Amino acid sequence: xxxxxxxxRHRGPDGEGEYHDEHVSLGHRRLSIIDLxxxxxxxxxxxxxxxxxxxxxxxxxxxxxxxxxxxxxxxxTHSDCEVIIGLYERYGENLLSKLRGMFAFVLxxxxxxxxxxxxxxLGQKPLYYCWHQGSFACASExxxxxxxxxxPSQVNLAALDQYLAxxxxxxxxxxxxxxxxxxxxxxxxxxxxxEPPRIRRYWSLEQQPKLSGRESELLDALEAQIxxxxxxxxxxxxxxxxxxxxxxxxxxxxxxxxxxLKVERLPTFTIGLDYQRFDEAPAARAVAQLYGTDHHEDxxxxxxxxxxxxxxxxxxxxxxxxxxxxWLLAKFTRQYVKVVIGGDGGDELFGGYDRxxxxxxxxxxxxxxxxxxxxxxxxxMSLIPESGWYKSIGHQLRWLHxxxxxxxxxxxxxxxTYFYFDRERRRELLGPRALxxxxxxxxxxxxRAPYEASSGSTLDRMLYADSLVRLPNHPVMITDRIxxxxxxxxxxxFMDHELANFAARLPDSLKVRGGTLRYIQRKLAARYLPSxxxxxxxxxxxxxxxxxxxxxxxxxxxxxxxxxxxxDDGILRGDTIARLVAEHRARRADHGNRLWLLINAELxxxxxxxxxxxxxxxxxxxxxxxxxxxxx
Length: 632
Prior knowledge:
This protein is an alpha/beta fold.
């Protein structure tokens, strides 16, 4: 337990606590936010028979505490998490229907010798577990379970397949064999008898029935929902700040905090970049000035080579360009506050990605006879250069053409894998060891299954799949791991499950209308933001990193891919990787995002499976960045 707690010290730098009996050991690292003096965990009931460790915040704890005290429950602390114990003693496993917050917790009932573990509705807080021969362990991050297992790690080929296809790893997989991820909105129970854990879903996003009423009425209702979520997310005994990127999500939240909730001199944080097209600092500065926030801005020149091992160590997974931007912002923000509000979830709630209307456009393009598309349009498409930024018009046209030959869930999966490794590209990439399992590897199933589980429109199905898969496993996972690596708690009001349910029931026409994304959110933002902020194009600096930092990437190709351990161990094919690098360097094709995935998978494999140290890799990469120094 001490080794596991040490591995998680970054998540809770303010202290630690333990509980042990003959059946269970509980440990907790604390980032003190509420009840600074008395909220040390593990928490227990008065009889010391029920014990709890919890990571996160219960935003409606005051209301719950009043109800439980009225029923005679006695509290020992003022911690928000202690209400979980009171709810358990009254409602048992059904306590989860009462909670509103972000959390992952483990509760142990020594009387019944039952353990209960749960993860919040939309997966803001992580929970990983392993079970082997009657022994069970769980933790907030994989690194603690690797310490617990104390044996050589093995790569999970199904998870690697997902990463290459979708740039994420979906529950129950992790990148490690034998380590599993509890899905969002699920609860795990088990007894001390040694039987396998039982897992069930306790909450689902409800998209039906759709809300009716005039647009103005629904707009007012949405504003009230966001205001309530913001009010709850301000619950803290320490100062709360806000990320301010200049985009719609963060700008709207900051504006509402200042105007509706009357927060004065709200600390706001922005990273400025030396790439004018992608520098959002001027827009963020304008919002900060408009609402009189206590604004902090830092200008940086991203050093991808130096930070990659740090990012992978923090994530326990191959990294993503978004993780670099989040790392720089979190490191800067933590100098001032330990709680920050961010805008995760807005795209998935209101329909903010190009692929949402792209998939709808593909349905119209599909009406052109397939023979015409194949024999006449495809040759014309082949004349469009394949090189250049992946958001270029040429790439978008090729993407749309590709989608027209798929339908339903397969089309949506294809819209995500197109810029990474679709199934045919993965067949060419995987080595003999991975191809032995080729028939059982189906990365796209992670997207197809939730898409097909929704009974709504095409847009509903896409949003449902993203809320269950992409949101918790990509932006939210990165936000949690990278912020907590710096001892910073990030809160996302858009991911309040009550707000998410409201947004899910809004009509399609209020989300994607023609070529307008996030229609109703734009209408709401127009009440708070000037048109020059509201109508700025979405810039997406993180997705442009493989193109903006081209020289750094070129050095990484030589260092990471020319002598690949994944190739040595038969997992990937060296000739395919060499071809991708050659085509990209010669600008015959655009493989920027694919090579990013390969570089990160390789570094992850060296660190986590081969056991190469982070410091040794950093030294090797630094040598690649400064070849003259290396030669000396």
